[in-house]
């Protein structure tokens, strides 16, 4: 098993789409890190998030919009020797994306942002009332830089190719191994 860096955009998007939450990392006014779990949506290289209009995270972002968004999926504990702690590892795939947050102001674009978020979690179509849309903050993060790593990928070339193909189809090769 080894660690593989994926550059293929389809693979990166497949990893993002398999996640149910992300972790956002920011740096506050005192230069301290602040990391939160958040729900998200993704479309065309842009991450969509939503929040209440006020709170610590919003105060931080208004001062410093730089954000790091981390996704991780397909976690599976594996080991080479049951008795040797150093041989244990967590098979997984993760994506680390960097960008700057902008807050959407336009009501229709906010609705679109909410739809993109909901698409991550449901196939249902939703309507949003004007007060609900006014009271939610929609964040957009165009991705400036992204990296994707697969931990515990099989050494075998053939298996790895098959793994990537299955990921693109939205399957979890780790769960089926
Ligand atoms: C799985 C999951 C998904 C979530 N998805 C969303 C989402 O899509 N949108 C959204 O707005 N929020 C979401 N939350 C909540 C989010 O993590 C924050 O709690 C929320 O955004 C408020 O952040 P804030 O900095 O404004 O909080 P504030 O209330 O201003 O923070 C005050 C203090 O509370 C503590 N705190 C804040 N959040 C957390 C936390 N999650 N866990 C422990 N301590 C905390 C911190 O120490 C902080 O200094 C989610 C939480 C979980 C667990």
Task: Describe, in plain words, how this protein is organized in 3D.
Strands 1, 2, 3, 4, 5, 6, 7, 8 and 9 form a nine-stranded antiparallel beta sheet that branches. The relative contact order is 0.23. The protein has a single domain (2-170), classed as Electron Transport, Fmn-binding Protein, Chain A (Pnp Oxidase, Chain A, Roll). The protein has 177 residues and is α+β, with helices and mostly antiparallel strands. The protein has helices at residues 9-18, 56-63, 107-119, 130-134, 157-168, 173-176; strands at residues 2-6, 22-27, 33-38, 41-43, 46-51, 66-79, 88-100, 102-104, 137-153. It has six helices and nine strands; from the N terminus they run E-H-E-E-E-E-H-E-E-E-H-H-E-H-H. It starts with a strand and ends with a helix. Bound molecules: flavin-adenine dinucleotide (FAD). Flavin-adenine dinucleotide binds at residues 21, 36-39, 50-52, 55-57. Flavin-adenine dinucleotide (FAD) binds at residues 21, 36-39, 50-52, 55-57.
